[in-house]
Predict the structure.
Amino acid sequence: MTTWFITGCSTGLGRALAEAVLANGFNAVVTARDAAAVQDLVDAHPGTALALPLDVTDGQQIADAVKQAEERFGGIDVLVNNAGYGYRAAVEEGGEADVQQLFDTNFFGAVAMVKAVLPGMRARRSGSIVNISSIGARLSPEGSGYYSATKAALEAMTASLRKEVKPLGITAMSVEPGGFRTDFAGRSLTQSAAAIGDYAETAGKRRKENDTVHGTQQGDPAKAAQAIIAAVQSPETPGLLLLGEDSLKGFRAVLDALRAETDAWESTSRSTGFDTSLAGQH
């Protein structure tokens, strides 16, 4: 039976995915910093669910969780790096410690999880790695520079990883959700302590006290969960899965803008090579 290992299952997309995986009859290792927050999933599925405490910034906890998962179910077939949180600040406003913690969780924590499960996947010559990114990696909205940077880094790593592990029978996929009705824009969203007045009309409009998006997002986490399961089970798992109408629309708008700007500056881009027609002339 397929075994899924999902980080960040206490709320939101992680919990919806854990519920869907278990409802589909798969094994699921459901993790959260406080394992009590996911104990109800085990109570409902005692034979196929294992709840474990996991802070992805703690290397020892990662090693222990992976070991316990492998001992219980024999191996991890699908890793879903979902643990993470948002951070709002203009680039100039971002606190050094805040930004370090954000990268430690959203990027380096995911990397540590990938490295922990790959030995088992390589030994079996099978497995899937799913890294939950965000359409913010493309859109880079005002006030989300650091959060977008963590997700862009995660996607770049995943794209290289996909090429490295494909010959070993392993897939790697990034998922870019748009706005989903989770706690992401509520409880899970943090921001800089400082707010600089000059950014009031850009990053400032997206600070928590000014943001009215929470609770009105159009995305359904339960449907997102089913889409992820379908993509993992597909014989042609995509390298990038967009989730939500807003994600599709935003992604295509960014592509169009990049193409237009690339075309506008094409002659300048081409002008930087050595002039081979002058070779040998003095």
